[in-house]
């Protein structure tokens, strides 16, 4: 039996153990996966001990993704771009490797599960924290016609523009200097949903046929999904599909087998 875990704080409500157990059953892989809450100052020592004791892989969630990036000796391409890591494992020589599968999860859910190609789309990314970084690290690989970043703290949006501007046409704004135009894809990467709030966007940002995606999810949908539906979005999606797809990519890095995600997404939706 190979041991895996998701490490975070808080982590009690993580759906990852459930999702990975479904993947393990489906692929007939001998995987045991649990959730571990770690104090902020013991993350590094936890990771070292986990792998020293024979652990096979870790998922990393809030607030440790940047710490995991710093700890990682060999970065995958998306981890390198995002400067954050959500998947850790050892290679054959025992080197600690890290990749970020969040952006892949987001893009697969949008493009593959919901048949919405990103190429040539005008993208609005709301937020400029860790979630936005992970999203951008893969969004820029799909030739959007533009990516507009809008964030409460302008300097953070500008920083992302600096880092990602070589890979796609990226512009940065604060809510104050943002002049609303139409977008084809609007991704909410803020943590505002946690407090039941919405980003301050005018409804005229939705182009006809617009896809709105909330990277968060919650029982009964999210406020942003509700807002998108009320304002005529063609697609209004919460982050459950992304959650399952990022987990599938981690599983496939670890086990070399890509699980089938559709049934798992449906199951989680039924339960939310
Ligand atoms: P995560 O890892 O979930 O991205 P984060 O790095 O703390 O968490 O980023 C949270 C994002 O939500 C940021 O874009 C943050 O804006 P700031 O960069 O200005 O902090 C955004 N956010 C959180 N609370 C907000 C609020 N009340 N109004 C607007 N944006 C908010």
Can you describe this structure?
- There is one protein chain.
- The protein is an alpha/beta fold and 272 residues long.
- The chain has ten helices and twelve strands.
- It has helices spanning 16-27, 43-52, 65-71, 77-82, 102-113, 130-139, 154-164, 223-230, 240-255, 262-271; strands spanning 2-8, 31-37, 57-60, 74-75, 87-90, 96-99, 122-126, 146-150, 170-173, 183-188, 206-214, 235-237.
- The strands form two sheets. Strands 2-1-3-5-6-4 form a six-stranded mixed beta sheet, with helices on both faces. It has a six-stranded parallel beta sheet with strand order 9-8-7-10-11-12.
- Helix 5 (102-113) packs across helix 6.
- The two termini are 30 Å apart.
- It binds 2'-monophosphoadenosine-5'-diphosphate.
- 2'-monophosphoadenosine-5'-diphosphate binds next to helix 6.
């Amino acid at each position: 039996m190979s041991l895996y875990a998701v490490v975070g704080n808080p982590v009690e409500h993580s759906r990852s153990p459930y999702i990975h157990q479904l993947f393990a059953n489906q692929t007939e892989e001998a995987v045991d996966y649990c959730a571990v809450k770690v104090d902020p100052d013991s993350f590094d020592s936890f990771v070292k001990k986990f792998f020293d004791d024979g652990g096979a892989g870790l998922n990393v969630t809030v607030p440790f993704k940047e710490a995991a990036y710093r700890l990682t000796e060999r970065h995958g391409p998306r981890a390198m771009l995002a400067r954050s890591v959500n998947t850790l494992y050892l290679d054959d020589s025992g080197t600690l490797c890290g990749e970020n599968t969040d952006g892949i999860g987001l893009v697969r859910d949008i493009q593959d599960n919901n048949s919405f190609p990103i190429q040539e789309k005008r993208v609005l990314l709301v937020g400029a924290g860790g979630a936005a970084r992970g999203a951008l690290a893969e969004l820029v690989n799909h030739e959007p016609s533009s990516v507009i970043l809008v964030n409460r703290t302008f300097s953070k949006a500008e920083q992302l523009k600096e880092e990602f501007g070589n890979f796609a046409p990226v512009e940065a704004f604060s809510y104050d200097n943002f002049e609303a135009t139409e977008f084809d894809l609007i991704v909410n990467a803020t943590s505002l949903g946690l407090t039941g709030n919405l980003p301050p966007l005018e409804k005229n940002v939705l182009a006809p046929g617009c896809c709105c995606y909330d990277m968060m999810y919650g029982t009964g949908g999210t406020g942003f999904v509700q807002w998108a539906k009320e304002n005529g979005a063609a697609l209004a999606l919460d982050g459950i599909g992304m959650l399952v797809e990022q987990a599938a990519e981690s599983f496939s890095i670890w086990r070399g087998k890509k699980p089938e995600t559709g049934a798992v997404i449906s199951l989680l939706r039924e339960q939310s």
